[in-house]
Write a structure and sequence with these properties.
The protein is an alpha+beta fold. The chain has nine helices and eight strands.
Length: 307
């Protein structure tokens, strides 16, 4: 009898290991991951979501809740902070289901069910360029394997090419997990709760900032603690910098005008003094009047050269 038990144990152990290995392979352990810059995997979308703060591992419960209301809908997760730079309890994310895409309209009945369950509704625009990658979604471990394998490659790809890509989206549909980070209009991908938080932070920074250029830079839409850039796009960042530079230029123009006006008064004073000296010289030296006179144009030229 013990021989049979030993034999069964010897046979079952390799079979179990083989089963586990096949399971992980099927989940996408060795699937190819290609990071690209190009068109987004989704168009303009309207989705229902719930916003939370905390470790990203806790988002599983929100995914379950959202799928239970609309099991046939594609799920979406938006992650706003870098967990390597932001403590877990302060990480912000939104999870929900896509109600409509492109020109399609959302199902009114589903929309009411989500709103009754405490979900909010928001829309993302369609952008032209994103950083994207995808992995198969076949089992629960596909999610864990995908996150561990894809995000390091996305981070390396973005840093290597010095791209401005944020926030990170995960879209679950058609047997795939599609990872996406927009390269433009990033501010449009921040739900209302995140925008309110950033607005309060911006107001606090403004109250403590000085009126110099460095203080003006602190009022930009960058979260000092989030680890993720919060500007709308590279274009908006350039626009913001140009707005901050305008007061400096205006001050310079005003200073130049003051210096110009001051120079004009000095010129007038010099001309008056020159006229008085010319009258005295004319009275004293009637014979050499031409040599004593000094043309007023020369005085203008000297003052203009000092400027």
């Amino acid at each position: 009898m013990p021989d049979w038990v030993t034999l069964c144990a010897v046979i079952s152990l390799p079979l179990s290991l083989l089963t586990v290995a096949c399971y992980f392979l099927y989940s996408g352990l060795l699937s190819d991951i290609i990071v690209l810059t190009g068109s987004p995997p989704i168009k303009k979308i309207t989705f229902a979501y719930k916003f939370k703060k905390g470790p990203y591992k806790n988002c599983r419960q929100l995914f379950k809740e959202s799928c239970s209301i609309g099991p046939k809908l594609s799920c979406i997760g938006i992650f706003y902070d870098d967990p390597k730079k932001v403590p877990g309890p302060q990480c912000r994310y939104a999870v929900g289901s896509i109600l409509s895409e492109g020109e399609d309209k959302a199902d009114e009945e589903l929309l009411k069910r989500y709103e009754t369950s405490g979900f909010n509704v928001f829309s993302f625009p369609e952008v032209t360029h994103v950083v994207t990658a995808s992995v198969p979604h076949r089992t629960f471990f596909s999610i864990l394997l995908g996150a561990r394998r894809v995000y390091p490659r996305l981070e390396h790809y973005i840093k290597e090419r010095r791209l401005c890509a944020h926030p990170f989206l995960e879209i679950y549909r058609e047997g795939l997990i599609q990872f996406m980070a927009p390269l433009a209009r990033q501010g449009d991908f921040y739900v209302s709760e995140v925008r309110q938080t950033e607005r309060r932070l911006s107001e606090q920074e403004e109250s403590y900032s000085d009126t110099d250029v460095s203080g003006a830079d602190s009022n930009s839409e960058y979260s000092s603690g989030s680890g993720i850039l919060l500007s709308d796009s590279r274009e908006t960042s350039l626009a913001a910098s140009s707005v901050h530079s305008e007061p400096v230029q205006e001050q310079g123009d005003r200073g130049h005008r003051r210096r110009s006006s001051g120079g004009t008064s000095f010129k007038e004073l010099d001309l008056e003094q020159t006229g008085e000296r010319q009258e005295e010289r004319q009275e004293q030296l009637h014979d050499d009047q031409k040599s004593a006179e000094v043309p007023p144009q020369e005085w203008w030229g000297v003052v203009g050269g000092e400027e």
